Amino acid sequence: MAAQLGQLYGSVRVVVDERQRALLVLVNPADRALIDQVVRMLDAPRPQVAFEAEVIEINRSLSQALGIDYDLSLFRFGVKETNIPNPTGGNPVRFGVFGRDVSLPIGFSATLNLLQSSGAGRVLAKPRVVTTDGVEARINATQNLAVIVTNNNVQAVQNLSTGITLRMLPKVAPDGSIEVQVSISVSAPTSQTQNSFSFSTRDATTTVRVGSGEAIVIGGLLENRRTESVEKVPGLGDIPVLGELFKTTSTTTAETDLVIVITPRLLTPLR
Questions:
Q1: pLDDT digits (tens, 9 = 90+) for 122-174
Q2: In this prediction, what percent of the chain has a pLDDT beyond 90?
Q3: Do 74 and 187 form a contact (C-beta atoms < 8 A)?
Q4: How does pLDDT run across 192-234, given as a tens digit for each residue?
Q5: What's the rounded Cα separation, in Å, for the pair 32 and 125?
Q6: CA 187 – CA 165 distance, rounded (Å)
Q7: How far apart are CA 67 and CA 64, in angstroms?
Q8: Dihedral through CA 94, CA 98, CA 102, CA 106, nearest 10?
Q9: What's the pLDDT at 154?
Q10: Which of 82, 96, 117, 186 is surrounded by the most beta carbons within 10 Å?
Q11: How many distinct structural domains can be found in the chain?
């Protein structure tokens, strides 16, 4: 602030008292009212923004088998739909903005509840965080996956981090609207063969301007997950070569989609 006052008014002398976090401003009496106004404007507290997020994983294969078409309910309830490129190729990532002061349309909420009750959807995380205007908020909903690796016939346990990382950078406009830059990164194992794992990463970044209380919905982070499980007769299934006769291998493939709902709210400072 001292530098800003000096740039605006060359005749102003500003002394900074860092210990008391105060400014001593020396100015001509005729300019005092104007300087007081400038100090109040520059010393205004920066607004704070609270983010409420909900991360929902939907099993598209199971939802289609059950006849639940969440795509229609997601983007046909007064939502403004926009596509952003998918950095990994394929279909673009879609996001939309719901109306002000409405957490989610009734039809969309009912569809999500149906997906969860039928086992086709599950909530991975419901984090909340508060940040200041212009300061990035970061949410990590990750876990360590212990994987047994073999090197030169020696087995060891290696911890791999998987999960969801959300980064949200708010910029509050004078009219109270909020420009939010949202970055999402999702890493998860896509296939498993005994102790061997393959991982995929889904990323998306977009910037959208919303009002306080409007919900940002992001979907289209698709993933094909392949899981291979082995059932064997204890003892006999471990016999070299002949053990293959006493074990059964099954493979399942599921297509999943992540739906992320982010609601920024402008906090009113206490007076």
A1: 888 888 999 999 999 998 877 777 777 667 777 777 777 788 888 999 999 98
A2: 11
A3: no
A4: 555 566 677 777 788 888 889 888 887 777 666 666 666 777 7
A5: 53
A6: 9
A7: 5
A8: -70
A9: 77
A10: 186
A11: 2
Q: Which two tokens stand for residue 237?
A: 């299934």
Residue matched to tokens 């919905």: 217
DSSP string, 9-69: -TT-EEEEETTTTEEEEE--GGGHHHHHHHHHHHTPPPPEEEEEEEEEEEEHHHHHHTT--
| 3-state class (DSSP) for residue 107 | helix
> Do 257 and 221 contact (CB within 8 A), yes or no?
yes
The amino acid sitting at 129 is V
243 residue type, one letter: G
Domain of residue 151 covers: 48-267
Token readout for 17 is 């008292």
**Both structure tokens of 190:** 């896509």
- 36 & 57 share domain: no
Structure tokens at 47: 């607004």
**Do residues 35 and 122 both lie within one domain?**
no
Spatial distance between the Cα atoms of 197 and 119, rounded to a whole number of angstroms: 24
CB burial of 188-227 (b: ≥16 within 10 Å; e: otherwise) equals: bbbbbeeeebeeeebebebebebbbbbbbbbbbbbbebee
Dmax of the chain from CA atoms?
99
Q: Specify the pLDDT at position 159.
A: 77
Say if residue 4's pLDDT is above 60.
no
- Tell whether 114 and 237 lie within a shared domain: yes
